[in-house]
Amino acid sequence: MKKITITIDVEEDCPPMLISTRGIEEGLPKLLDLFKKERIKATFFVTGMMAEQFPDLIYRILEEGHELGCHGYTHARFDRMDKEEARIALNQAVKVLRRFEKKLISFRAPNLQFPEKYLTLLEEEGFRYDSSLAAYKPPFPRSRVEAKIIRIPATITSSFLRLPPSLFLPLLKHVKAPLIFVHPWEFVDMSKLPIRLDCKFNTGKEALQNLKTLIHSFKAENYRFLTMEERACLENYELRS
Ligand SMILES: [Zn+2]
Fold first, then answer.
1. What is the whole-number distance in angstroms between the Cα of residue 14 and the centre of ligand 1?
2. What angle, 0 to 180 degrees and rounded to 10, lies between the N-to-C axes of helices 55-63 and 28-38?
3. Are β-strands 149-151 and 144-146 bridged in parallel, bridged antiparallel, or unpaired?
4. pTM (2 decimals)?
5. Which residues of the chain have pLDDT under 50?
6. SS3 9
7. What pLDDT is stored for residue 73 in this prediction?
8. Which residue from 5, 96, 109, 229 has the least number of CB within 10 angstroms?
9. C-alpha to C-alpha distance for 1 and 169, rounded to whole angstroms
10. CA of 220 to the centre of ligand 1 (A)
11. What is the total count of domains within the chain?
């Protein structure tokens, strides 16, 4: 089966540079509308803080059949915390997110930075799947099981998906089962803001058009769009077989 997974990291606009939440207020509804229209499911990794601030959107994510995952409590990096701080941050996020979804089993750390030695904390909190690895950075990790957690790396970084589709589509099709991630703030025009270039180029309409093109292109080749959970179940089998 040809498969692709779309994940969305729900956080403040381009953290830690901004604390505004235009992405969630304006970008997230557009993403949900697109997925509804295209009849595809995705995994939304949400920070505990944003879930507290925007409960109605979290309910909408779940009502429309998507998977809710955890993206920490604030967007603070776990690799800059000691183990006890990481345990507290994780528990704080889990407490909030489980109010919306009891079965919370997928995790992605902010900035895709999660020390291996903290994986047992994920297991203690009941997580089974992690997507905190970046396949596009050395040592170019592949899917694997560590500390009972199934780890599925992100295939490419989100800003790459704002380049012309003729650049990223061939690359994604070359990968066995791509897993991509985007942020709601990328679907709001950030071009006038004094932030890093990679956070603002082709944001807004262009980013949304690119995502539509991506979805149509993969649909045309009969890919199935799977959530982290749906896909990890299959990968689990593949890893064990
Ligand atoms: Zn993030």
1. 8
2. 10
3. antiparallel
4. 0.96
5. 240-241
6. strand
7. 98
8. 229
9. 19
10. 30
11. 1
Put residue 140 in one of left, alpha, beta given phi > 0 → left and psi -120 to 50 → alpha: left
Instruction: Return the pLDDT at 12.
Output: 95
Give CA–CA dist 128/206, Å, rounded. Answer: 35
Q: What are phi and psi of 113, to 5 degrees?
A: -125, 105
Structural domain boundaries enclosing 150: 3-240
Average pLDDT over all residues of the chain? 95
Question: From ligand 1's centre to the CA of 77, what distance in Å?
Answer: 9
Residue 241 has a pLDDT of 37
Instruction: Tell me, in angstroms, the distance from the centre of ligand 1 to residue 40's CA.
Output: 22
Q: Give the CATH number for residue 179.
A: 3.20.20.370
Per-residue pLDDT reduced to its tens digit, 142-180: 888 888 999 999 999 999 999 999 999 999 999 999 999
According to the model, what pLDDT value does residue 85 have?
Answer: 97
Q: How far is CA 86 from CA 45, 200, 230, 232, in A?
A: 17, 30, 27, 24
Q: What are phi and psi of 39, to 5 degrees?
A: 55, 50
> For residue 11, how far is its CA from the centre of ligand 1 (angstroms)?
6
Angstrom distance (rounded) from CA 187 to CA 197? 15
CB 165, CB 210: distance < 8 Å: yes
At 236 the pLDDT is 59
Cα of 241 from ligand 1 centre, angstroms: 33
* pLDDT value, residue 210: 98
CA of 100 to the centre of ligand 1 (A): 20
pLDDT of residue 232: 86
